[in-house]
Design goal:
Distance between the termini: 20 Å
Mean pLDDT: 90
Helix content: 10-25%
GO molecular function, one term: dioxygenase activity
Strand content: 25-35%
Oligomer: single chain
Organism: Advenella kashmirensis (strain DSM 17095 / LMG 22695 / WT001) (Tetrathiobacter kashmirensis)
Radius of gyration: 12 Å
Low-confidence stretches: none
Number of domains: 1
Protein name: Glyoxalase/bleomycin resistance protein/dioxygenase
Number of strands: 4
Shape: globular
Keywords: Dioxygenase, Oxidoreductase
CATH class: Alpha Beta
InterPro entries: Glyas_Bleomycin-R_OHBP_Dase
Length: about 70
Amino acid sequence: MISYTMVGTNDLEQSIHFYDPLFVEMGLEQCFRDNNCVSWGKKTDITFPRFFTGYPFDGKKPTQAMAS
């Protein structure tokens, strides 16, 4: 079971501007937001997978295949 997917970003505000309309169209909403990341999903259903975008945890610039 997948509980979340996360993609890195260099610009959180630009990512929010891109993803917000997309996820609203899919019936999802922002579930969490702080200075480092934001997630979308269904606030009323904790079993529903969430999508996160944010700055890398190690503080480095995001690159392709960071998790590999």
